[in-house]
Amino acid sequence: MKQVNALGRRKSAVARVYLVPGKGNITINGRDINDYFVDASLRYIVNQPFEVTGTVAQFDVKANLDGGGIKGQAEAMRLGIARALCEVDKEAYRSTLKANGFLTRDAREVERKKPGQPGARKRFQFSKR
Question: How many CB atoms lie within 10 A of CB 58?
């Protein structure tokens, strides 16, 4: 199998994921996953597609992350890994990944601030007189 690449997005974070057969090494922006995502819950989010499909330690992942915060980057990487696994073997992995919601792009974005208001939805206090 050759290298498979996929794209994952969440909020303003973008993850370009490259999947190759290997021993389960995950490299993000040239750093190990344990160095990049210090919090264990974020590493769990990234590894969810592998655990659900039963492919832990079967693929090496190299990812380029850009934009957003660490939580958005972790979720973008989860989507990228899930999409890459689908390209590897659609029949085997797609149904389980879709049932767990890992193939759905979370489209929620921050709403922009409007002019003449303190925030996106908040208004200044209204005075009738």
Answer: 15
